[in-house]
Amino acid sequence: MGDEEEAKASVEIWRYALGFAEMAAVKCAIELKIPEAVENQTSQPVTLADLSSAVGFPPPLLRRIMRFLAHQGIFKAVPTKDGATGYTNTPLSRRMMITNRDDKSMAHMILLSSNPVAVASYLKLSSAVVSGKGFQPFEAAHGKDAWAYAAEDPGYRETFNEAMACDTRRVVPAVTNTCADIFDGVSTVVDVGCGTGEAMGMVVKAFPWIKAFNFDLPHVMAGASEFEGVENVAGDMFGLIPRADAVFIKWILHDWSDEDCVKILKRSREAVPKEKGKVIIVEAVVEQKKEDDDDDKLEYARLLLDVVMMAQMKNGRERNMEEWDHLLTEAGFVRHEVRDINDLQSVIIAYVS
What is the CATH number of the domain that holds 243? Predict the structure, then answer.
């Protein structure tokens, strides 16, 4: 066993030594719209010459990028009739289409993770671990927290908003399909921290009887989209949240400390009716023991997301079920349940009564 572990380690270590180069290659493919170029060619598999012509870049470096991405299984290398190497898309490469705004594309999330602004904070992570509480990698790298930076940098703000929107397009359909019953008897929903506002557009489309509200800070709402059946409202979630039968809050609480989460949850509880009110939370739940191998792979992503939060947010973190129990109890909810949607995130429904 020792020799086997040593042999495995001698190979695996290269993933960490050269991992940033893999991210760079993927980022390159997204920015050059290589998956789109492959998809749009009528003749398949796509030769290097045709691909080069489609993306408008010379073949030599493109060939090396494609060789690596095909080796990783992102694209599929297929022999052409002439015996040359051609390329086809895979389900993975299609998830890297930046022009594809369906519920599978993760291109904008990848561009956020590989953005130099985000990467700079990762490089300060060891200082945060050494210093303990009080040291924030993003602030150390940029002189201000992530929210202040995004407010002042339109380019980074757009990258961040697009990444959150692509997650919304991916996960909200899973919520409405898998947990449709939680919207039974619900006439109004408010999305707290709505960002671009797409989530409520999807909810209203799935459940047309619902009147929805998008709720976020004024500068965020200024750029929010308009959707039929959805009203945009500016405000502060630490202040007064618009009243509704249900509060929807996705990927917001993991940005904040326990103390701030309790404040947000209390405001959310106050916004819904005592008789039938509920708060629908879409967040990761780490350290859940499951037998499913696919979920074990998702746990890898959840734990990586926790590292991202450590680098990006002053008090951000992913939480286990015991920690969620504590927050919801402190916020005054009488009961809650967790729904698995076969995703990085779960749905936590907190009830007022």
Answer: 3.40.50.150
